[in-house]
Each structure stands twice: as structure tokens, then as C-alpha cells.
Amino acid sequence: xxxxxxxxxxxxxxxxxxxxxxxxxxxxxxxxxxxxxxxxxxxxxxxxxxxxxxxxxxxxxxxxxxxxxxxxxxxxxxxxxxxxxxxxxxxxxxxxxxxxxxxxxxxxxxxxxxxxxxxxxxxxxxxxxxxxxxxxxxxxxxxxxxxxxxxxxxxxxxxxxxxxxxxxxxxxxxxxxxxxxxxxxxxxxxxxxxxxxxxxxxxxxxxxxxxxxxxxxxxxxxxxxxxxxxxxxxxxxxxxxxxxxxxxxxxxxxxxxxxxxxxxxxxxxxxxxxxxxxxxxxxxxxxxxxxxxxxxxxxxxxxxxxxxxxxxxxxxxxxxxxxxxxxxxxxxxxxxxxxxxxxxxxxxxxxxxxxxxxxxxxxxxxxxxxxxxxxxxxxxxxxxxxxxxxxxxxxxxxxxxxxxxxxxxxxxxxxxxxxxxxxxxxxxxxxxxxxxxxxxxxxxxxxxxxxxxxxxxxxxxxxxxxxxxxxxxxxxxxxxxxxxxxxxxxxxxxxxxxxxxxxxxxxx
Length: 508
Ligand code: NDP
What we know:
By secondary structure, the protein is of the alpha/beta class. It has helices at residues 7-16, 57-73, 81-97, 99-110, 114-135, 171-184, 199-211, 225-234, 247-259, 284-296, 313-327, 348-364, 396-399, 415-423, 438-447, 481-487; strands spanning 23-25, 28-30, 37-42, 47-53, 142-143, 150-158, 161-165, 188-192, 218-220, 240-244, 264-268, 274-277, 308-312, 367-370, 374-375, 382-383, 386-389, 406-412, 427-428, 430-434, 452-455, 470-471, 474-475, 489-497. The strands form 7 sheets. The protein has a 7-stranded mixed sheet with strand order 14-17-18-13-12-20-21, with helices on both faces. The protein has a 6-stranded mixed sheet with strand order 9-8-7-10-11-23, sandwiched between helices. The radius of gyration is 24 Å and the shape is globular. Bound molecules: NADPH dihydro-nicotinamide-adenine-dinucleotide phosphate. Residues 165-169, 192, 194-195, 224-226, 229-230, 233, 244-246, 249, 252, 268-270, 303, 401, 403 line the site of NADPH dihydro-nicotinamide-adenine-dinucleotide phosphate.
């Protein structure tokens, strides 16, 4: 774990840090060709911290041409696997050297608590890149069981140019989840950060050149989704887009693909994830801690946030009391204070959307048993962790992804009712299940319709496990694990005739 600094030290770093603001193409920082910029503010203070290049279609064309050239020259795609591995490991070493800087940039840009940036976002981003780098020279292709007269080989080849269109909730980590496997497979990669959170990603790519990743292989195009994002989606020379964000925009990428070149689309989308706690769950203090982390971590701005607590009647009151008590431990406040576990909401637009849902919940007749209001900390935008009791699964607060610190508590009679309520959603990203009955745990884990089911904990697995969703939580997109690595490759069959054509064939 990284050593935490004091608030004053983080403040000093934030005010002295060199804030990157230009696009990064072909190994160089450059402004958008149009000269347009977007203002980026620190949501914890509402101060403008940078004017970021707002890339347009012409910047996308330029970056794609450079990425394609790098790919075709083979400077990365055909580099010896051990060379690609070395460069990516070197990138991780440089990230380690700059980890306080990366953490501070992430925090001031997104509103995330520095505690999380230092202990989760930056270290996990390094680990995922290192994991995929280490895999590069350990993956074998296949020879098929096709007899002596033919040699059948199944080989994986990088797609070519891959775009990663990123969300604002885990900027650096989502960049790492994309570039780890995509670069490991030999692709050239172009990242489009969310318009509110480009800084840590720009810092990361700056380090990539020093690490030995050749120019043109890794680029960053900050800008608006409706302009730069759409231009990437529609570009005829991009082979694949890996997207994390809302289901609505994910569907747009399928349209872009259909209207352009049938580029591969990998989607990791939203969730309305259930946390199911049954009467036989052990140690309700621990369960309550997990429930609170599952919903409020990252201010609930998390696609795997367990925003629905589906709890069996026999333990509901006792568990809810403990959940309310534990919520108080998650102090909300200025993100650069390492004692705070919750920071600011990412943007004013998103803050308004969460407050609207809190209002909807009140009007729908659910009862606020914790929070329910905005918090004043200077000029920043903060919302109290909020718990609604007496929710039924038809209410909008139980059906729509709020993506904020809002928990809906739904009481059920039985385990079977719990599972049917849990599955009664258009999403299927993650589900948590708490029970002490082993047989029931296995059976219900199978019945829950989600890409990841964690039992007796809240979790997304680790680097070795794929992460992605069922139903409208995703399409093909699985981040992490070797499945992610395969996902950035085309599969080619090579079939070689080995039969002896000189043999006389006796047809008599
Ligand atoms: P979006 O899905 O709108 O944004 C994700 C990325 O897509 C951003 O880089 C964005 O750019 C880009 N984008 C937006 N519109 C387009 C477009 N028309 N064509 C191409 N790219 C586009 O998420 P939001 O940031 O607006 O958040 C809205 C909701 O999405 C949240 O409330 C939450 O429900 C969900 N979400 C889910 C995430 C997850 O982890 N699965 C992450 C983020 C959001 P730009 O920033 O410029 O808009």
C-alpha cells in the first residue's frame, strides 16, 4: 500500500503539479487543430483547474493515421513479446515513481477521495498493466487435432487500431483495464477520456514514451463524446472500440459500427446491482460493513454499486440499524484530506441528476432513514450517503441507475422472492449474496443473473477474473483476466496441407 501524505502535502503537490492539458498523439502533446478547449473544474472546490484540448474529427483522423502507421510498421505489433513485456513493466515502474502525482491529478479532476486514489485506483491500475504485461510471453496459440495430412493452427492476432472510450468514475483504472490487454496483444490504442477527467490519463501516456512504448502506439484524445467519441465510433480505420459508460451511449456505438466498418464493439455498461442478504447470513456487523462499501464506495458512482439491498424479513430491522450506524463511519468531505472516505460528486450535471432521484424517491413514498441532502463543504458539490427504506422494486429509485450515494432497501419474505426481485431488472452486472448455507449459496449464485456474483462479500473478483455484464450491462465486453486479452485479438485459422500429393491413388 502506498504511504499516505498529509492534507497539507497533498495541497502543496496539487498547487505545484504540472497539469497536462493537450492531446497526446504520435508521442507529442499538441492542442486540438481547431484550437478549441474545454474547461475542467475540481468538483471539490468548483475551481477551474485546466483548459483541455477539445479534439474533433480532424484530430481523430490524424491520431488514427499515426496509430495505423505504427501498427503496420510493426514497431509494437511485431515487437518480440519479451520487448513488449519489458516496456509495459517499465511503464508500471514509472507509474510507481509518480504515484502521488497520479493520485492527486485523479482526485482534483474527479472529486474522488485521495485515500481511494492512493490505495485503490493507482495501485490497481499498475497491477492490471503489470499482469497483462507478464502474460505476454506465456500465452501459446493452438495446433488442432486434425490428423497427419494437415496442420491446423489457431492463432490470435491483434486487431490493429483500438479505441478506448472511457468513463469518469474510475478514469485511470478504466484506462488501465483497456490498455493492459489491448497493448499486450500488440494493438495501437487511442483513448478518449470522459470530458471531465482527462488529467491522470494524459500523465500516464506521457510516461509511456519514457517506458519505451513507441510513438503512435498509445494516444489520448480528450474531448466531447458527441464529437470526438462519435468520430472514433464512426471511423472506418478503427478496428475495435472498447467502451465503458452508460447503456444508452453503449448502444450508440453499435449503431456507429453498423454505419461504418463493422468494427468490433466491446461494451461494459451500467448496473442496478442487488445485494441479497438472507435470514441465515452470519455476522451482521460484517455484512453491514460490506453493504455500506458495496453501495457508497466512490460515492456510489460505480457500475457495480450494490444500490438495492434485498433483505429477508427476519433480519431486516437489525441489519438496517447496523448499516445506518456503519454509514456514519464513511466521512464525506474534502477529497485531499486522507481521513475522508467519500469525496465530491464528479460534475454539477451529475449532482443535479442524483438530487433529482433523491426527490423522486421521497415523492414515490420511500422513507429516508439516512442522509437525503446535499452537504456544504466550501464551494464543492457533495451529497450525503442516503438510505431509503420501504422501497418496492417497481419504484424508479429501484429500477434506474442513479450512480450516486443512494441505497434502496427492499424487504422480502423468502430466498426465492429475493432472487426473483434481484433478477427483476434490465441490468446484470454484479450481485452479492450473503448466506451461511453452502448448498443455498451455490444454487443461488447460479440463479442470479449477473456477470459477477460475490458470495459472503462484496467484490468484483481480482485481476484473474473477467468483469462484465449480462443483459443490458454489457455486450462481449469482459475486462481483466485472459479473456480480456483474447478479446483484443482476431482469431485466425491457418490450414496447411501435409498430404503426400505425389502418392499414386489406386481407384480400382
Ligand atoms: P456516458 O456513457 O455518456 O459517457 C461515457 C463516455 O462516452 C465518455 O467518454 C463520454 O464523453 C462518451 N460519450 C458520450 N456521448 C457519446 C456519444 N454520443 N458518442 C460517443 N461517445 C460518447 O456516461 P455519462 O458520463 O454521461 O454518465 C451518465 C450515466 O452513465 C451515469 O449516470 C451512469 O448511469 C452511467 N455510467 C456508467 C459507467 C460505468 O462504469 N459502467 C461509467 C460512467 C457512467 P463525454 O464525457 O464527453 O460525455
